[in-house]
Amino acid sequence: MNPAPPHPELVTLGEVMGVAAATTPGPLATGAALRLGWAGAEATVAVGVSRLGRSAAWTGRVGEDAMGAMVLAGLRAEGVDVSGARTDPAAPTGLMLRERRTADRLRVTYYRAGLAGSRLAPEDLDEARMAGARILHVTGITPALSPTARAAVEHAVAVARAAGVIVSFDVNHRERLWSRAEAAEVLARLLPYADIVFAGPEEAALFVPADEPERMARALTGLGPAQAVLKLGADGALAVADGALHVQPAVRVTAVDPVGAGDAFVSGYLAAVLDGSPVPERLRLAALCGAFAVSVPGDWEGLPRSAELGLLAAQDISR
């Protein structure tokens, strides 16, 4: 058995909330059954990387409450280092209420404004840990939560960039949190720090003119990142890396729950980066992880372990 690295290979920071999810379709009503869990974009990436055999750490704030304890215990159980996480006595852990209003329509309500996750601040970060990592992963969700969370992300990418750490940035725009104009202004400041940027076409259009995906990816690399990866849903994905185009079809599966698919995709890509794999293999692993995620209810529960990849690796590829 190889000894654990002195620093986690991937470090990420952000918000994790408790999740109360309806177990059956229909409107919420007295006596409805709910499944308790937790979710967060950056934490999902950390779990995915950990399940694929690489080391990962998550930094953020949770409340000094039962929900916060559940979140930290859950991340530890997945092998994610949470020694840099902070429990906040002044604010409770946020909550996501997920209602399956019909068999194929989700309705989500968030309780997060001013709560523990949004109170992340630059002083919560371990600069030595970030500087010693191989990858720092951030998303566009955290900067939208509060001015202090925004400052934490901007400080993290500056520290990582100065230390020569690969900076991974998933745009992950959330219209409920802020307008496209505000998101474009703030997130454009992160692009020059990023080595790898992930986006869907609508997210990429925050920064570059709407066009066909390859041209948008190439335009993104013109803003700083060496690699631009466009997530295209059922149409798969493509990457422009060091000027070369790589295309990855989607893996055919029966979709059960689309939540978390993008973060699962990112976790596979970054795990392959840590493995030293070339870009086509990064995209292939990313597509497999996304397929596993949509095949299972929940944000991160369906993420594969390395030994399970063969279950879908031989699946037909949609073209």
TrEMBL record:
The keyword Flavoprotein does not apply. Residues 9-301 form the Carbohydrate kinase PfkB domain. One of its GO terms (molecular function) is kinase activity. This is Sugar kinase. The keyword Kinase applies. Keywords: ATP-binding, Kinase, Nucleotide-binding, Transferase. Belongs to the carbohydrate kinase PfkB family. It holds the Pfam family PfkB. SUPFAM superfamilies: Ribokinase-like. It comes from the Bacteria.
